[in-house]
Amino acid sequence: MRMRRRDSLFAYLIQLVTSWYSVQSYCVMYDVCHIEQSSPMNCRADENSTARPIHSLSEDAAKKLEYICPHLLEGNNGICCSSAQVLAMSKQLRQAGSLLERCPSCYDNFQKLWCEFTCSPRQHMFMEILQEVDVPETNISYINKVRYNVSKDFSDALYNSCKDVSMTGSSTKAIRLMCGSLKKNEECTIDNWLKFMGTQNHRIGIPLGIEFNLIDSKQGPDEGSDYFMSVPTTPCHMSPRYGRDKCSRQDCAAVQVVDLFPRDEGTKEVCQVLGMGCKVFLLFGSLFIFAGVLIFMGFLHLFHSTSTTDSGLDRMDYKLQSVNTNMGRIRTMGAWIQDQLKYNGEMFGRFVVQHAWFAFLFGSFIAVISISGNVFLKFTNDPLEMWTSAHSLARQEKRVFEQSFGPFYRVEQIIMYPKSLEQVVDGPHGIRMGAVFHKTFMNEAFIILSRILGISATMADGRRVTLDDVCFRPMGHDYDCLIFSPTNYFQEVCQVLGMGCKVFLLFGSLFIFAGVLIFMGFLHLFHSTSTTDSGLDRMDYKSVNTNMGRIRTMGAWIQDQLKYNGEMFGRFVVQHAWFAFLFGSFIAVISISGNVFLKFTNDPLEMWTSAHSLARQEKRVFEQSFGPFYRVEQIIMYPKSLEQVVDGPHGIRMGAVFHKTFMNEAFIILSRILGISATMADGRRVTLDDVCFRPMGHDYDCLIFSPTNYFQQNASLLNISITAHISAQPDAESDDLDYYADETEAPQEKIETRNYLDHIYDCIENPYNIETSTNMSCLGTFGGPIFPELIFGGASESSQLTDSNALIITIPLNGKSSNLKKAMAWEQALNLFWKMFLGGIDLIGSNAFDGKTGIWFINLMKDYKHEDIQVSFMAERSISDEIERENSSDVYTVLISCILMIGYVAFALGQYIVTDNNLLSLLVHSKIIAGVAGVGIIMCSAASSIGVFSLYGIGTSKAALVVLVFVVLAVGVNRIFIIVQAYQRLEDTGGQSVEDRIARVCGQVMPSMLLSTLSESLCFFVGAISDMPAVRGFSLFAGLAVIFDFVFQNTIFLAIFVWDCKREEACSRWEGKPELMYHRKLDTERVESEGYVYEVMGKYAAPQLMRKWMRMTVLVVFILWFCCSLCIFP
Fold first, then answer.
1. With the C-alpha atoms ordered 177, 179, 181, 183, is the resulting torsion angle positive or negative?
2. Which end is more exposed in the chain, N or C (fewer Cβ atoms within 10 Å of the end residue's Cβ)?
3. Are 1100 and 1086 in a shared domain?
4. Angle at 1102 between CA 1096 and CA 1105, to 5 degrees
5. 141: which strand partners?
């Protein structure tokens, strides 16, 4: 007996020791001991090396492991990986995550595969080292190949969860990218997938070879393997962890389409009372009532069983033979029931009589208990709650909609219709339109809606609520309320100074008109005491022929009023020249001061698209939802000799862009672009790495779409040459027996040499190919595919890209606002680089572009010339820079035109007549100062207009200012000539003073100047209705500039002209000095001639120009000049 106990105890101890050994955590590999071609290589763990606690990791590595492999931390069994291994695994999983993260369950299962491989404390159970490599330099060895035993159930579950995951923006399955070289119609299986991930390839981030051994868990481990890796997986239609979503239907075929609105009629009880179906409630309720009646009747029968026979209650004895037996059983039972009800009723009445208080209190108690439930009574007037069941299809659809998209908006509706439906309006194209389109009816709609918009309400807490507080705004809070109304067809999208353009034009016109009336009234009041000898004649309308009619009479009166008030104004300026000069100067200074807020823009988006346009709204919504769109830099290269072709693989003739020389040039250009740097205003250096777009994360290279990225930016791979031995296959149409007729003759091997063209061809066929026929990857350095449609262009057929004749390089930059200044600085350096690069400028020894531009490296491009290649480029800011360049060049044009105009006006305004053979008399009647002042005043009017609108934050482009200067200059100079020449050609009636003559001139020219100013400014203001900001801004500036020009010419310039006329009179008669100071008096007379210029043009130039042969000559010369200009047009 003792022996048996000892044997049992010994067996138990052996089993315990064996179990303890089996649960020990032994590591197979640990830490990184070597870097091979940028790939971290793992080391063999020490013998009997146990798992380390998680706190042995760095803080960063521990956080990453907890995020990636939370299942390893359950139970705190330790880990078999170092911080370096965790960080390397995290980086490699991020690359796979860019493909698989669309399906969280797939990515989680994929992470478990590599978490167990890298950090599992049970590595010794399913991993075996097959090959190690010694490093003589460091006297260490690293693991180069291992066997990884994986449960077939796990691998199948992993494959099933990932097989339907698609690439973002493409229908291609993600695992095809991770399955090596596949033909177009070949599917990626789990074996292909694991084989590719286990094939060592440092270029694509597979550091060591892994021999995946799939083991069927039902049959047990294979011979030579102790155990296999198997951890729970998550199907793709389920969430892998708390807080993560399940896969979408697009990426998981196992996701069932859930019927959100079940229509199972007849089987589901939609009517419920007290938590049970209505039918069940009625059934149990009926049984309950029936049972209660029976119990109550039995209780009464028992209570009165001792009643005496003298109770006065007669009962029928059914056993008496006196009863007719022909009644039958049914009638007998009915008589018995009736007798029982009558009897128990009598008993109940007797009971109540005897216990009246008990009956009263019992009934009152039931009533009180039942009535107390009214404290929970809720009334509803909601039609939805009153007329639809909570389980109806409509209520279910509403509930699902609100859970998915939020509550549906509340609708307020007004319907208007005319009482007289016969009233119709003639519409366009002869269409008869209904009465609702009548202007009176539409006006009523505007009135009603405007009053509705002004409605406000007061809440219980005293807050005021308007429509703006509660309305629905689908475009965001910066936009108006959504109102479906015909009145919204007439919305005000054009605004000036905070009001609609039409309103601005209306009030502007009224303001100008009112100003003119007030000014005329002021002049009339000021000169109401004028004497009759003022020299001003006024028309007496009472003496006018009455046959003129009212309209003509009114027109003549208006014309006379304008002339009269013009004369009054001229007389006022002559008498108060300093006041007029200072008044105009004050307005000019105040207006011009607004230019300190002037903002120029060269952004095409701000210049050519309206802020209310659909494109701008869509852009705004896109950027609010997804962030700013990236900036695009693009280079296009194409060969000049399109006849040059290259023989490609499979006998395909490939375009000249695939020539090795051409591809080498693409490498050279791109390598130099990657070296571009710029210096910002604060001295910081900016390179492409600082501003580029990295879709795979900051640990990866910049996104560059280029054929050079098929070679991972390594130009030496163009020289690759691989010799492949291919076994000759029998012809499918020949007889197999004939093929092997000679048994002594072995099958021949076919030798093929593959080069860079085979690699490009494979990448065009499958841009996801990680291992082409040349053993290279098609993925770019940024970690993603490069679609051939984006890098090759000009093909004769879109499906045959091998016939392309253009090579395209596209570099997206990060478009975030925080990155904008740096991106624009780098783009500026890129533009300068291209100008120097394509121009072949020798920059050695030149400091033209050092410092802020930061493109000293352009010296390397000084002698770039290639006779067979042409290059074009465009940066995101190229259009803006070109606009800025043209505007800068136009500045010199404006300056030259102003100088020439000053010279022309100064010369043409004067009258150059020599009197008494004294050449100094030429200066007496010249108008040099008046001409220079007039051009300056024109410039002031343009500057004043810009300054006023700058105060209201309305910017413009430099191009608009250039045009504005020319327009205002043309209008203003014309008015200067009108004023001056009208004075010069005024007939001297004798004895008139300067005041009288200038007053007469103002009466003649001011009406036409006023009317032309009003018409020109209104025409320009009409252009402000345009949605295009550039046109709108120019129209506003030009319209106001014309008004300012009129004001300044009739105040500042007129005052200067008065002084000049007085000087001329003084020099001509007594005590005067000419325009340039002289010490003696010049006895000159008033010039009656119209001047040499007028005489030359009138007597010689004009008649000659009107000759037939001269007109033909001028026409031919101008046509030839125009054609020559077109020939040299860039």
1. negative
2. C
3. no
4. 130
5. 134
| Tokens encoding 188 | 């990626």
The Cα–Cα gap between 781 and 713 comes to 8
The gap from C-alpha 463 to its chain's centroid, in whole angstroms, comes to 37
- CA 400 – CA 258 distance, rounded (Å): 12
What is this structure's pTM? 0.58
Residues 848 and 958 in one domain: no
* Helical H segments across 434-548, by residue range: 439-453, 467-470, 501-526
Residues ≥6 apart with Cβ < 8 Å to 67:
none
Q: Residue 632: enclosing H or E segment and its boundaries?
A: strand 631-639
Q: Are 1081 and 1102 found together in one domain?
A: no
- Burial tier of 998 (Cβ tally within 10 Å: 0-12, 13-18, 19+): buried
Lowest-confidence segment of 132-141, 343-352, 597-606, 904-913 by average pLDDT: 904-913
Position 871 scores a pLDDT of 82
Give me the pLDDT at residue 299, please.
Answer: 67
Residues 6+ apart with CB under 8 A from 184: 765, 766
* pLDDT number for residue 648: 76
Q: Are 61 and 45 in contact (CB under 8 A)?
A: no
- pLDDT tens across 318-349, in order? 444 444 556 677 888 888 888 888 888 888 88
Q: For residues 1055 and 957, state if they share a domain.
A: yes
Going by the DSSP 8-state scheme, the letter that residue 26 receives in this structure is B
CB 436 within 8 A of CB 478: no
Q: What is the per-residue pLDDT across 488-545, written as a single tens digit (0 to 9) for each? A: 887 645 555 555 555 555 566 556 656 665 665 555 555 554 444 444 455 444 444 5
Distance CA 182, CA 968 (A): 71
Range 390-416 burial, b when 16+ CB lie within 10 A, else e: eeeeeebeeeeeeeeeeeeeeeeeeee
Other C-beta atoms closer than 10 Å to the C-beta of 340 total 14
The whole domain housing 481 covers 425-491
User: How far, in Å, are 332, 333, 337 from residue 326 at the CA level?
Assistant: 10, 13, 18
Over residues 1060-1077, mean pLDDT? 56
Instruction: Answer yes or no: do 162 and 221 share one domain.
Output: yes
Q: Does one domain contain both 753 and 860?
A: yes
In terms of C-beta density within 10 A (0-12 exposed, 13-18 middle, 19 or more buried), how is residue 632 classed? middle
CA dist 803 and 790 (Å) reads: 14
Residue that is last in its domain, among 491, 506, 538 = 491
Beta-strand (E) ranges in 869-999? 869-874
φ, ψ dihedrals at 339, nearest 5°: -65, -40
Tell me the chain's radius of gyration from C-alpha atoms.
50
Return d(Cα 127, Cα 136) in angstroms, integer. 26
Average pLDDT of the residues of the chain: 76
Which residues are CB-neighbours of 1060 under 8 A, at least 6 positions away? Answer: 927, 929, 930
Shared domain for 223 and 96, answered yes or no, is yes
Residues 6+ apart with CB under 8 A from 999: 535, 536, 567, 568, 570, 571, 574
pLDDT at 732 over 70: no
Tokens for 638, please give them: 């194409």
Measured distance CA(201)–CA(184) in Å, rounded: 23
851-to-677, 683, 685 alpha-carbon distances in Å: 11, 9, 10
Say how far apart CA 1057 and CA 995 lie, in whole Å.
12
What's the domain count of the chain?
5
Helix ranges restricted to H, 540-652 = 549-575, 577-592, 604-608, 614-626
**610 contacts 1091 by C-beta, under 8 angstroms:** no
Residues 64 and 108 in one domain: yes
- pLDDT, residue 108, reads 92
Start-to-end C-alpha separation, the chain: 115
In a domain, 159, yes or no: yes
